[in-house]
Amino acid sequence: MDKLSYLNESSGAWHTYLKQIDRVAPYLEHLKEYIDTLKRPKRALIVDVPIVMDDGSIRHFEGFRVQHNLSRGPGKGGIRYHPDVDLNEVMALSAWMTIKSAVLNLPFGGAKGGVRVDPSTLSARELERLTRRYTSEIGHIIGPQKDIPAPDVGTNQHVMGWIMDTYSSSQGYTVTGVVTGKPVHLGGSLGRIKATGRGVYICGVEAAKRVGLELKGSKVAIQGYGNVGSEAAFLFYDAQAMVVAVQDHTGTIYNREGIDISKLNEYVQQFGGVCGFENTENIANEEFWDVDADILIPAALEGQITAHRANRIKASIILEGANGPTYPEADDILIERGKTIVPDVICNAGGVTVSYFEWVQDISSFFWSEAEINHKLDDLMVKAMDEVWNTATKNHCTLRTAAYILACERILTARKERGIFPG
Ligand code: NAD
């Protein structure tokens, strides 16, 4: 690769992703001439997003949409609103979407978008203007057959509704299939909001079964109590596991006898975070990594499990609800310490799977019941866990490498069979 290229940065999430590809390369000897396809995004768009603020001033925000790979179908991936968003991060997140879609064998490539903004500092009207302008700037590369955004950190179903409306206005008719994670009455799917957390839970059940951990009475620690963390917490709680620690941006709460998750959602909605919840003590954020737990679920942001933290983690199963929460050197330490890590590319794939169901429902204009959706989701997740586990056993490798073997094999075979244009 060229020196000084943005593709070669020696740190950040993209660097983590490249290291993961290097680790899987020896297993893909038969496709090695195509491996570089995975080490560069197909298309990366940087856009200026100017908006008029409520006080009449004009502010400019930086927006991105990266389509990492489209060999197996249209791009698929969320849109993030966060002050740390940059090209490096969006490239990595888009690449992980390529891998994730392929592990689940969904007919999608990988993409991701984002705007460098703290959405909590904008009014609802400013957020809407930002979303509509960003949509119009990336509008020529998205579409139901091109690239289908979805929610991620800092965005939600209302933002998806504005994207759908803005895109539809530009086309002159209603295009429900341009985004997923929409409100249900705009063509959204039942079960979508809870899907990622549900997928994390299913991976937990499957992993626990295989390592001989009884879920009932087991201890669970969760970082992040948003979309993903809260649903995973509820399902573990419902299965009579004890959620002993929860951390969010407001701090970390702990109760060794288990936190009452049935009441926590309401508290978080009212007070904006978990801190101060009844019958819990606040512990220092760094202590979260020392908590005595059987299952650890990072479900906030990437780059959370450093080598230092990996040496302290007590849990035997780590379920990566977040994207890219574990640094490669931490990965090695955890594996050395005998931990089972269910990697993000399968563990948090419940969201993209139900997004796929939403897209199919929108295209066919025929909608399924929540029970049907959950049933189909459970089936696909269990099948993918089976395939990943068996690949790991066969190749004597980690679940992460196994997931990458399966995914990269599918992506690069598609690339090979399509050929390189113009030949
Ligand atoms: P969210 O915005 O709903 O929730 C994020 C949570 O993380 C919040 O509880 C927030 O308080 C917490 N948080 C933020 N900064 C923190 C910090 N510094 N320390 C501790 N906690 C912090 O986001 P989400 O949709 O739940 O996504 C969480 C993760 O899961 C992200 O990595 C995202 O990419 C990934 N993910 C989400 C989906 C989805 O469907 N929502 C799908 C796949 C992967």
**Biggest beta sheet summary:** 7 strands, mixed
Please state the overall shape, judged from the principal axes of the Cα atoms: globular
Percent helix, as a range, is 40-55%
Low-confidence stretches: none
* Proportion of residues in extended strands: 15-25%
CATH class of the largest domain: Alpha Beta
CATH architecture of the largest domain: 3-Layer(aba) Sandwich
Biggest β-sheet: strands ordered side by side in the sheet: 9-8-7-6-10-11-12
The name of the CATH superfamily of the largest domain reads Leucine Dehydrogenase, chain A, domain 1
Please tell me the overall pLDDT.
96
Count the helices. How many?
13
Estimated radius of gyration: 21 Å
Domains (count) = 2
Distance between the termini: 21 Å
Binding site for NAD(+): 196, 227
GO biological process, one term: L-glutamate catabolic process
Organism: Acinetobacter tianfuensis
Active site: 112
